[in-house]
């Protein structure tokens, strides 16, 4: 073995090759070292150029609403660095170096799209703060943060950047101030307001001074009314939006997924949101982040606030709005972060055009059309019988039911099953009660006449087509009663569902 080595090293060709390899390695090392030193020098010069906080007046506060912590040395440095970055004083090469991993992944064009984008984050708590932080770190240059709340002690278990000194300060101010220390080039538009139908146009409008409309809106709200108002506005105005559903009581990060709102069947917040949106005619087309995790024995659940605790008068410290009844929502601190990063991940991929696949929707449109046709046919038969068999009274008859109503009743209220047998196939909707008077409504104007039935959501129940055909023939058009066809358990279940439908009719 030693003789073989001696022969190899004596060979002039091998010696030359080895010398070339070593020389190349030394040259490459020298180049890389020089580049590293150059970059280090730039960073050093940048840090040295940041003025001392003692040489300047305190940085102006973005908002005066709520007590703010006094700026410390790092805050002052971050503020001055941000000012310089927004003026273009910071070498773009350093910014690109900070975003280098994203640039390699998304490509230069993808990163440029991200850097030119404008994203609105509505709700800056656990989910929203992590989403905003991820977007700022990834290169998004314009962020509008919307939240009327302040940082509380209980926020610290799940907020992305808040520290003890931030307690009592507005969430939007806390978030922007901390993120400027990470990505000083980001421009923030802070709105300490509550999202609702009246404020949506202002809060979701174009970027100040440019009219640049949001490239994406993130819904990280945990209030149903505000959530529905936001999603409805985005739907009506074709603003790209993604909605985060409930992270509370969830513990399994492997069950979190992105899909169309029509597929998010196992999440409480998603279910409530879906119901309201369907009544507004929105059955699909909104991406959501949700969990398929099921509740189970020993798992956390939503707890009511004990009345004796409310009577102590200290409940106001748990919330932001005075006289607002607080419910205790168990939240594992890690889960909002997973939801937030999943939301941000989706937004980044969408803005940059990176390939992304959704969970397939349920493809229920054909079923909804069939149910609507059955309702139309049965209402015509009911009116024809009431009007003495005249076909003329049914010509042009309209039924006040939309596909959204059908989706809500069939899938949300009756869980996609017959109320009679629980069968999940060939489902339709049919009147439950036999009308005591004509259901025909006529509206005349000159030579124009509109005919419709007086159908309401609470009138309809879900059955299989065969069950509904029998129900129509024997009860609605016949002389039998509900007790002749159904047992007491079915009748009680129907009445409970009809009462629930009545409660939702006001949202139509």
Automatic annotation (TrEMBL):
Main location class: mitochondrion
Domain of life: Eukaryota
Subcellular location: Mitochondrion outer membrane
Gene3D superfamilies: NAD(P)-binding Rossmann-like Domain
Topology of the protein relative to the lipid bilayer: Multi-pass membrane protein
Segments forming domain THIF-type NAD/FAD binding fold: 101-357
Keyword Metal-binding among record annotations: no
GO biological process annotation, one example: cyclic threonylcarbamoyladenosine biosynthetic process
Keyword Lyase applies: no
Annotated keywords: ATP-binding, Ligase, Membrane, Mitochondrion, Mitochondrion outer membrane, Nucleotide-binding, Transmembrane, Transmembrane helix
GO cellular component: mitochondrial outer membrane
Positions of the UniProt region annotated as Disordered: 50-77
A Pfam family: ThiF
InterPro entries with a match to the protein in the record: ThiF/MoeB/HesA, ThiF_NAD_FAD-bd, Ubiquitin-activating_enz
Single GO molecular function: ubiquitin-like modifier activating enzyme activity
Record-stated family: Belongs to the HesA/MoeB/ThiF family.
Role this protein plays: Catalyzes the ATP-dependent dehydration of threonylcarbamoyladenosine at position 37 (t(6)A37) to form cyclic t(6)A37 (ct(6)A37) in tRNAs that read codons beginning with adenine.
Name of this protein: THIF-type NAD/FAD binding fold domain-containing protein
Organism of this sequence: Rhypophila decipiens
Taxonomic lineage of the native organism: Eukaryota, Fungi, Dikarya, Ascomycota, Pezizomycotina
């Amino acid at each position: 073995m030693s003789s073989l080595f001696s022969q190899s090293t004596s060979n002039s060709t091998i010696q030359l090759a080895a010398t070339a390899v070593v020389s190349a390695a030394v040259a490459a090392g020298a180049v890389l070292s020089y580049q590293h030193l150059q970059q280090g020098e730039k960073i050093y010069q940048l840090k040295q150029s940041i003025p001392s906080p003692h040489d300047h007046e305190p940085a102006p506060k973005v908002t005066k609403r709520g007590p703010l912590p006094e700026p410390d040395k790092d805050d002052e440095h971050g503020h001055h660095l941000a000012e310089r970055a927004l003026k273009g004083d910071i070498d773009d090469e350093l910014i690109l170096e900070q975003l280098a991993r994203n640039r390699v992944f998304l490509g230069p064009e993808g990163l440029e799209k991200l850097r030119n984008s404008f994203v609105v984050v509505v709700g800056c708590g656990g989910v929203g703060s992590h989403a905003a932080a991820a977007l700022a770190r990834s290169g998004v240059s314009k962020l509008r943060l919307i939240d009327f709340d302040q940082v509380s002690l209980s926020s610290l278990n799940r907020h992305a950047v808040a520290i003890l000194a931030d307690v009592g300060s507005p969430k939007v101010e806390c978030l922007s101030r901390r993120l400027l220390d990470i990505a000083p080039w980001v421009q923030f538009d802070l709105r300490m307001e509550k999202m609702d139908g009246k404020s949506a146009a202002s809060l979701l409008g174009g970027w100040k001074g440019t009219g640049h409309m949001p490239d994406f809106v993130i819904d990280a709200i945990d209030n149903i009314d505000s959530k529905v108002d936001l999603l409805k506005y985005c739907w009506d105005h074709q603003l790209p939006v993604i909605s985060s559903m409930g992270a509370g009581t969830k513990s399994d990060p492997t069950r979190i997924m992105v899909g169309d709102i029509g597929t998010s069947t196992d999440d409480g917040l998603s279910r409530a949101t879906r119901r309201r949106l369907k009544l507004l005619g929105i059955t699909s087309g909104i991406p959501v982040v949700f969990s398929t995790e099921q509740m189970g024995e020993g798992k956390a659940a939503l707890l009511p606030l004990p009345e004796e605790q409310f009577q102590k008068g200290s409940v106001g410290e748990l919330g932001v709005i005075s006289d607002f009844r607080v419910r205790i929502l168990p939240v594992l601190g890690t889960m909002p972060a997973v939801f937030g990063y999943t939301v941000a991940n989706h937004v980044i991929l969408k803005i940059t055009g990176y390939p992304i696949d959704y969970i397939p929707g349920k493809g229920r449109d054909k079923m909804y059309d069939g149910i609507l046709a059955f309702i139309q046919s049965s209402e015509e038969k009911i009116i024809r019988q009431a009007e003495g068999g005249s076909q003329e009274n049914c010509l042009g008859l309209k039924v006040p039911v939309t596909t959204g109503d059908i989706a809500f009743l069939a899938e949300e209220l009756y869980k996609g099953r017959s109320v009679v047998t629980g069968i999940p196939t060939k489902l339709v909707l049919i009147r439950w009660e036999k009308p005591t008077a004509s259901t025909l409504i006529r509206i005349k104007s000159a030579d124009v006449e509109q005919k419709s039935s007086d159908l309401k959501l609470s009138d309809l129940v879900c059955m299989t087509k065969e069950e509904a055909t029998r129900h129509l023939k024997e009860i609605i058009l016949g002389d039998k009663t509900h007790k002749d066809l159904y047992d007491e358990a079915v009748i009680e279940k129907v009445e409970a569902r009809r009462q629930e439908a009545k409660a939702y009719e006001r949202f139509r």
